[in-house]
Amino acid sequence: MMSDTRQKWEQLNAYVDGELAAQERAEFAAGIAARPDLARGVAALTKMKAALTGDISAPSWREVAPQRPAVNRSRIAARIAAAFIIAVALGATLAVWRGGERPGWLDTPVAAHAAWVATGVAELSEGGAGAMLVGLSALGPDAAIPDLSEAKLTITGVRFIAARDDRPSAMHVAYSGTRGCRVSLWITMPRDGVTREMTLDRLGGYRVYSWRAGQLAFALLSSMDPARFAVVAAAAHKTTIENARPDAETVMALRRSRAESPPCGA
User: Residue 199 to residues 67, 168, 182: CA-CA distances in angstroms?
Assistant: First the structure.
């Protein structure tokens, strides 16, 4: 018998594809308004499908569900965002540099990212919408996929890796930028030594930020400009830890860091 989780994600997929009947669609839309996790799932799935079909007008998750009226606080947000970027650029309390022993569990995401970058294309060679649904179902509700669109990073592929021997299940989410940047998010079961605190490693020529959110371990890696990547990683860490969409300060920080950074190759 089909599980409730599988039914939920199949219904989500049908909602994104416009395959639900009018009444079902209305009921699902009402549910999205009250469930931020469903709103994020709809937005992530819509963005990925749009990217793979060349449609650049895919909505952000703020456009998926009704939101409360925004409070006019642009001046305060600008000041906080500026302070946020300065703090990230200086590495102030946002990430701890890990010295000494190399964390072995990061070898797999580093190899996966390197293999993707080596193809020279924005999309992953395998996986897609189906892989996202399977991965979200298998990894559970803590498998949040951050929305990095404000940094001009779009999901261009998802690959699910099933558990095998002593290797846990994992999901590889690929983000591609408009100026050649490539960012990989790796989500898997937690390993020893992974905490909620964001940690920075340099492995295989990449900067790798890792942390734990809920019952899962996350790793974000890229070779983009270090100051910009620190802002992107801080945003991903914040949204997965809080299981919430980016706030105004985070959005402004992502936009500004992108505007002030150079293009990148991977």
Answer: 33, 21, 20
User: Two tokens at 257?
Assistant: 């860091």
Of 113-127, 166-180, 211-225, the poorest mean pLDDT is in 113-127
Nearest-10 crossing angle of helices 36-52, 129-139: 150
Phi first, then psi: give them for residue 183, nearest 5 degrees.
-130, 135
pLDDT at residue 59 greater than cutoff 60: no
Q: How far apart are CA 12 and CA 217, in angstroms?
A: 25
- The CATH code belonging to domain 1-266 is 3.30.200.100
Backbone angles phi, psi at 156, to 5 degrees: -120, 15
Going by C-alpha positions, the residue among 217, 265, 255, 262 that lies closest to residue 81 is 255
What does the DSSP 8-state code read for residue 240?
A: H
Give the integer Cα–Cα distance in Å for 221 and 208. 4
Least confident interval from 13-27, 46-60, 108-122, 151-165: 46-60
Main-chain dihedrals φ then ψ at residue 44, nearest 5 degrees: -65, -45
Range 33-36, long-range pairs (CB < 8 A, 24+ positions): 33/65, 33/66, 36/65, 36/243, 36/244, 36/245
Query: pLDDT value at position 89?
Result: 43
Write out pLDDT tens, residues 84-140.
444 444 443 345 556 556 678 999 999 999 999 999 888 887 667 777 777 887 888
Residue 134, token pair as written in the block: 């399977």
